[in-house]
Protein 1
Amino acid sequence: MSVEAMMQNMIDELTDAMKDAAKHDKGVNAAGTRVRKTMQSIKAAAQDVRKQVQADRS
């Protein structure tokens, strides 16, 4: 997968998570759990992007 596609997937995940973030701000605890799960996924995806960019440099 290209770095551009990997980053687009991260953007799409974050965009989808905005709905849950708004619900969390209104006091829905379950939405907060979903936001945390998404953020953990984004963290892992960001690490994968870093690894891919480093591999491409070599």
Protein 2
Amino acid sequence: MTARERGVPSKDNVHRDLAVALVLLFVAAPILDFIVGSAKIDSYLIAGFLLFALYQITRRPADVVIGLVLGIPAVAGGIVDAATPDTPTMNAVPTILGALFLGFLIWRILKDVLAGTRTTSEQIAGAVSAYLLIGLMFSSIYGFISLMDPGAFAYSDPLAASLTAEQQGRSFGVFTYFSFVTMSTLGYGDIAPVSEMARTVAWIQAVLGQLYLAITVAALVGIHIARSRE
């Protein structure tokens, strides 16, 4: 009988490892961009993270099929995208597949965390990982929207002057920044959604981000109280 079946908190550190990998991704991307001087490095970093996430998710037999169907094409497409000249088709396919895989990963993490079979530290790490993954998923969605409609976003003059044409069209850093600024409802205004699709996705993310924090914190507190009573 497994720890889950006995109701005993699981002690493996899958959520902690994902949280560490996400932090490393967000820290390494701007540093390597600055050193290498090319947005192409982002595609390699994202492909590497997706490969690690795929390994983590496929440790569960029930998730192997969905993980492989979404994860393998996303990883392969990201590597091909990084190694070949830019074309809309080659960029768009790995971007949207990556977003779908991240969505599946978020769902799987939250389902696991809210089941209450993890240690407290793993539950917190899982909640943090899911929040960061939501930001990363929307970053991919914004990138896809920009690829399909280059005029979907407007940049302030100082920001536009600091970005190359390549960065404005497919920069991981730019859309990740916009994603988390939107989700936290900070809104500096240096990037603005212009198209109907971009505006719709932006307000959905802003609402989702606030609901996530409220609902997840309440759920974790409830699990902690229930566990303490037991």
Protein 3
Amino acid sequence: MSEGLTKSAARNIFFGGTIFFFVVLIALAADSVSYINSQSTNVAGLTESVARGKAVWERHSCINCHTLLGEGAYYAPELGNVWTRFGGEAEADVARDGIKEWIKSQPTGIEGRRQMPHFDISDSDLDALVDFFRWTNSINTQNWPPNNAG
């Protein structure tokens, strides 16, 4: 028996391995897409107001300081669970008003704390932004972030 791999054996291992791992990649991608489409996103809750709130989020570049579901900058708190932190569904009116008033009151002027700039956002845009936060909070994130502290 020969000591090394022949060219044809090496070629067969290469092509066989490539095909095997390509099939595994396709299967994992299909599983991820089916999970996302079936469980993760709250498609039923997507309303015009939620879409407008996302546009407000993008227009004011909130992601430059905040994270949303772990994506974005880490300068300011996570906002994927801000709805829960302000009371959530159990206290929906309190949460809605609390988030709006928090945004309106910025910057607080407390020395030694990071300050959010003041954004001149209309009440209808604030309502839409809060609807976006509420919808984002309803996404199945598989327990991310691990705590509600933000």
